[in-house]
Amino acid sequence: MKNILLIICVFLTTVCSVNAQQEKGIIGSSNWLNNWTEFKPSKVDYGEPTQILAGNITQNTKLVKKEVYILQGNVYVTNNAVLTIEPGTVIIGDGDSKGTLVITKGAQIIAEGMETDPIVFTSNKSIKKAGDWGGVIILGDAPINKFGSYSSVNYDLDPSLTTYGGQNPASSSGVLKFVRIEFAGKKVRGSSEGFNALLLGGIGNKTILENIMVSYAAGDSFEVLGGEPIMSKMISYKSNGIDYKFTFGAQAKIDNSLAVRSSYLTASSGSRCLDVSSYSKKEEVDFTKKQTLVTATNLTFANDSDHIDEDIKAGLVKEGLFVGENSSLVLRKSVISGFSPAVVLDRNIEINNKNLKKIRIEEMYLNFCNGNIFSEGSTENEDLESYYGDSAFFNLYSKTTNLETFNDFANPRRPDFRLALSKFTAAAK
Question: What is the pLDDT of residue 271?
């Protein structure tokens, strides 16, 4: 009888361990990346443009699948107009004029693709590369933490048309669903900085942001300036800049999302999967308002390298995520694989219980990282290892290759970045 009870206990422990493992990183009963994603966009022929988008769009407008549109220069949707884009529509950013689409505050974009018919923003170059065109900018009237409650997007855009921020956290700037954005991030004239593939300024929580893939961006893939966006099933693939950047008091939620980085693609300003900060300059910030808070669940951050150890030693790999001072992060049930180290905290964050309670990192799977959690510029992290290594946080540590860690990491067309449960089940037995 005792032997039977022991076997049952071992079985239950194994099942619980595997189930807990299954919950980490991107999840789904099937691979939700199938059908609508494209990991070799430079090989796709999207056809020749048949229609031009230029200037200001001041009235409700619909883009249809049967046409291929070229985005010339800075195109602004203004006057509270709604830009509707049919599933399967292709919009090509003009390389010569660095086409950029701006949805101004009060206007909306309804880009609701389908799993079998996504909407695509891409480059018109014969040889496509990061930074061929501008990107997509969506501006709303949700709160931000800058003085005066408003700001504007700089770059080389019309400042009168790029203001964002306000007092409406529940506003909607429309829908982006089953959308791909490829090769965006043009350089700004007279600056070392570039556009970001998808910039969300002051976006309210009624905006629908689901199943969006950004690939080969020269700047950041997703930049969130304030607002209260809710993001699900995002993908950032081999961008030069930061994959997910949140600042200016963003109260953001992101779940079941992915970032895959390359050791050989990086921006001069720094590159990491997740950057959570409240400001770049303290003097710009109104500290009477909410500082940045990101709640993130089931994220997978992976370095796409066959030789992670060698790349780390060569200095090609940096941290997976960064948390700035006066910012808060709740990161749960996520995977960080192949970084040096996994997490870096701003050097200005004093390591004490008060501050660490604002940075919750729990139920994680940290794999093949050169160190786990460090303060910026420090080589000693015993206090942080002790704090986050406590069993109450349920953080797990491992050192396996990408091929061992994920279901089908190297598949060139239909990769599967979910954790490889069969291998963990076998190990548990």
Answer: 77
Query: How many CA atoms are closer than 13 Å to the CA of 67, on its beta-carbon side?
Result: 13
pLDDT per position as a tens digit, 186-201: 987 766 677 999 999 9
Give the integer Cα–Cα distance in Å for 148 and 284. Answer: 10
Interatomic CA distance for residues 246 and 64, integer angstroms: 33
Assess if residue 356 is contained within a domain. Answer: yes
Rg of the Cα trace of the chain? 22
SS (H, E, C) the chain: CHHHHHHHHHHHHHHHHHHHHHCCCCCCCCCCCCCCCCCCHHHCCCCCCCEEECCEECCCEEECCCCEEEECCEEEECCCCEEEECCCCEEEECCCCCCEEEECCCCEEEEECECCECEEEEECCCCCCCCCECCEEEECCCCCCEHHHCEECCCCCCHHHCEECCCCCCCCCEEEEEEEEECECCECCCCCCECCCEEEECCCCCCEEEEEEEECCCCCCEEEECCCCEEEEEEEECCCCCCEEEECCCEEEEEEEEEEECCCCCCCCCCCCEEECCCCCHHHECCCCCCCEEEEEEEEEEECCCCHHHHHHCCCCCCCEEECCCCEEEEECCEEECCCCCEEECCCCCCCHHHHCCEEEECCEEECCCCCEEECCCCCCHHHHHHHCCHHHCCEEECCCHHHHEEECCCCCCCEEEECHHHHHHHHC
Is 18 within the bounds of a domain? no
Query: Do the domain assignments include residue 373?
Result: yes
pLDDT band at 363 (very low <50, low <70, confident <90, very high): very high
Q: Note the pLDDT of residue 267.
A: 64
**pTM of the shown model:** 0.93
CATH number at residue 89: 2.160.20
pLDDT on residue 189: 74
Which whole-number Å values give the CA distances from 247 to 194, 221, 251, in the listed order?
17, 14, 9
Q: Which of 224, 270, 272, 221 is nearest to 249 (CA)?
A: 224
Specify whether the CB–CB gap between 252 and 228 falls below 8 A.
yes
Beta-carbon contacts of 210 under 8 Å, excluding residues fewer than 6 positions away, are: 176, 177, 178, 231, 232, 233
Range of the domain at 172: 37-428
Total structural domains within the chain: 1
Residue at 331 is within a domain: yes
